[in-house]
Amino acid sequence: MSPLLLLAILVSASLAVWAVVRKLPFGPWAPALTVLVGGGSLLAAGLVPAEVLGIAWPTGMGPMSFAAVTALTLVAAQPPNFLAGAAILLIRGRLPPKQRIYTAMVKGGPLRFVSVQTFAVPPMAFLEELAFRAILLGVGLSGDSHPLWVASLVVIAAALPFAAGHVRGGEIQMLGTFLSGIVYGVSFIVADTIWVPVAAHILHNWFWLAVLRQRYLAETTASNEPSQA
After folding, report:
1. How much is the pTM?
2. Which end of the chain is less enclosed by CB atoms within 10 A, N or C?
3. Could you tell me the residue range of the domain that residue 161 belongs to?
4. Average pLDDT of the segment spanning 17-29
């Protein structure tokens, strides 16, 4: 195992453990963390060849192939959320309290929500895929071919900090994100491009934010209705 590959695994695992233990202080730290991850990813990306990061479009992949692989990735990324809930229910015998996540992203008027979906979701998804797939996987698995167990280990290691970054969403979302991160990692390796997991990630976030938006509106309407005597 190359030193660079080992470093990627150790850094990923260390970040994940630290985030879980310290609960990643969100709130006032969120903008700083976003700048750190996003800026660091862009800086690192500028130092790594585009073919290693999968930024370049792979030869032989047409629009139909891209759409098919993206759709397959999107579908495969959905079951982990339900599996996470089932696993926690099996282990604890109960589900954790309902987590109110992404409230700031789904509240407000229709124009605000459309703006979030248009201008916030795609860049966030791209930066996450750039940091946790393109850099960790692209750099970690660059060079000669690697055994399946090594590639699997790197994919899992890259999914750990990705999940840790969603710790605020609670145990179910964190575990579901970890499993989804493995799906995105596999699609990055199979498709040999970052654009497949980026597209699947954006579509995934668009869909679930729309679901959360409808739930938020329903709860807001119900809370504003006068109670029946």
Report:
1. 0.76
2. C
3. 3-217
4. 44
Is residue 210 one of the residues assigned to a domain?
Answer: yes
**What is the maximal distance between C-alpha atoms in the chain?**
73
Radius of gyration over every alpha carbon of the chain, rounded to an integer in angstroms: 19
- Chain mean position to CA 86: 20
**Residue 223: inside a domain:** no
Q: ∠ at Cα 79 (114, 120), nearest 5°? A: 20
CB-based burial of residue 13 (10 Å sphere; 0-12 exposed, 13-18 middle, 19+ buried)?
A: middle
DSSP state letters, 52-84: HHT-SPPTT--HHHHHHHHHHHHHHTSHHHHHH
Q: How does pLDDT run across 64-118, given as a tens digit for each residue?
A: 999 999 999 999 998 887 777 677 667 766 655 555 555 677 888 888 888 888 8
Within a domain: residue 168?
A: yes
Q: Which of 100-121 are b and which e, b meaning 16 or more Cβ less than 10 Å from the residue's Cβ? A: eebeebbeeeeeebeebbeeeb
Q: How many domains does the chain have?
A: 1
**Cα separation of 120 and 75, whole Å?**
23
Q: Is residue 229 part of a domain?
A: no
3-class DSSP assignment, residue 168: helix
Q: Which residue bears the tokens 């954006």? A: 202
Range of 11-15, 20-24, 33-37, 127-131 with top mean pLDDT: 127-131
